[in-house]
Design goal:
The protein is an alpha/beta fold and 354 residues long. It is 45% helix and 12% strand. The protein contains 16 helices and 9 strands. A 7-stranded parallel β-sheet has the order 1-4-5-6-7-8-9. Helix 9 packs across helix 10, helix 10 runs parallel beside helix 12 and helix 15 packs across helix 16.
Length: 354
Amino acid sequence: MSADDRPTGPPTATRDSAFLRACRREPVPHTPVWFMRQAGRSLPEYRRVRAGIPMLDSCMRPDLVTEITLQPVRRHRVDAAIYFSDIVVPLKAIGVDLDIKPGVGPVVQQPVRTRADLERLRPLEPDDVGYVAEAVGMLTAELGATPLIGFAGAPFTLASYLVEGGPSRNHEHTKALMYGDPPLWADLLDRLADITAAFLRVQIEAGASAVQLFDSWAGALRPEDYRHSVLPASAKVFRAVAGYGVPRIHFGVGTGELLGLMGEAGADVVGADWRVRLDEAARRVGPGKAVQGNLDPAVLFAPREAVAAQADEVLQAARGVEGHIFNLGHGVLPETDPDALTRLVAHVHERTAR
């Protein structure tokens, strides 16, 4: 698609939604709500349709992706859908030998730790993920005025999985490469930025109204390491999709000390986990950005009165924030009662109705 043919913003039917208005820091009829990992593990209907189907296979079936993405919209009445996928899907699409093992997560058969390993990571072409464009098209037809959020893993988190060979508590191989071979590290993240940007472009061009970049492991870094060794790649991703006119969201876990730097990377909305009050998060992010978050996911296991009280604390902290999207401070936990999520959406809508 040429630059002249690119969409210049979200689909017309969704532009006036509460979610997109909040992303643009405009007045809203109520505080919009969506949940990370809302499309998935906590829903019995999700477990039924996924029964016997490996995770990566389910991400490559447009019919299944569409059904799973729509389930929380139907059940919870959230203000946005999040595209059902996994952060390693673009890596699998370019030929990386990996699998998602139940109870473990993504496992890479040949970790990337040398220059020769890096050369195995070829560019992502739209045809590599044609099933993604097909699923997004199916979803936007079903969602109507409800926005669809595109999804991708950030370069640092993808790099960590590739270098470690799977999930890691300490990221020792990742940091050893980052400190020990800065040129190789920079080239790895730059290549992953291109792959990630290509993956997001496919989703936007197919009709996604916003995109979120998940940097799940960025909280393992010192601010100076993030600024020097990670921020340039994340910023490259955001620049690559800036011309589409869709809101760009940036989220990481344990990133309270990085919020200002994450804001500098170029997103329109910065998500905060539950460890930092939203008013303080907004101060750290700086002006000109909306803020997303940030109820502790574990709160949903408390009695409903306690959940409502904790949600009210989040809303109170966000009163002076210019542009607030209510979310959890991380993803929905698998054992969460779906009814608790439904009640939470209704509570936030009722409390903030204008």
